[in-house]
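Appendix B. Worked example

We walk through a single record from start to finish. Start with the input: the chain for Oxidoreductase, Ahrensia marina, length 249.
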Amino acid sequence: MSLAKPDLSGRLALVTGASRGIGYQFALQLAEAGAEVIAVARTVGGLEELDDSIKEKGGKCTLVPLDLKDLEGIDRLGGVIAERWGKLDILMANAGVLGTISPVGHVKAKTFDELMTVNLNSVWRLIRTTDPLLRQSDAGRAILMSSSVAHSARAYWGPYAASKAAIEILGRTWAAETEKTPLRVNNVNPGATRTHMRAQAMPGEKAESLPTAQETASKIIPLTSPELTQTGMLWDVPTQSWQNYHLPS
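Next comes the structure step. The output line below is what the pipeline stores for this chain.
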């Protein structure tokens, strides 16, 4: 797939977890490509910094301070988008939490429930509220952020890995249901990236050895292109390759 940035002039994009890391850089690059961005995050300061950066480049940004544990708030967001814009062209479901890296039996119930609410339940609510909006686009694009641990069953990563595996199933199912429409739905494994979450997971790792969030985001942006044909697949950023899940007929 060509890594050239697509022309997104006149398109509307929704990005969650947009106050820092990959989400911040992805939103910024969407704006640079011409898209109007709806930036969602719970950290107001980070959203304001993003807004400043986008406006400095002549772009448009609408800030939505929202904690994704507020599931009814996600539902309301879809209604607001429908009323103001009538459609949505791009969804980037990026926000997530790590939880704790520990044996499955040692994870606190509160930690597990919060992780599943943010990483999984909120994504389902996003799908439900944006599906009709994305179907109104001539080239709707949905990107759901996954992880390599969704496929590896790595010790101590159980809840986080389970949430990402479930997201991939949701994405694949959604893609199968919309395969004959202009909507393209794909999962993404961003790989190890220099982010706050990565530092939490791997505190002894040398951050300078990892790609920056800006570099990783630049390798995901092409999935927003109106010319994209792939759907129901996994885009692996480290190898820059597609994994085909073999969608059911």
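Two observations about the output. The CA atoms of residues 127 and 172 lie 12 Å apart. The chain has seven helices and eight strands.
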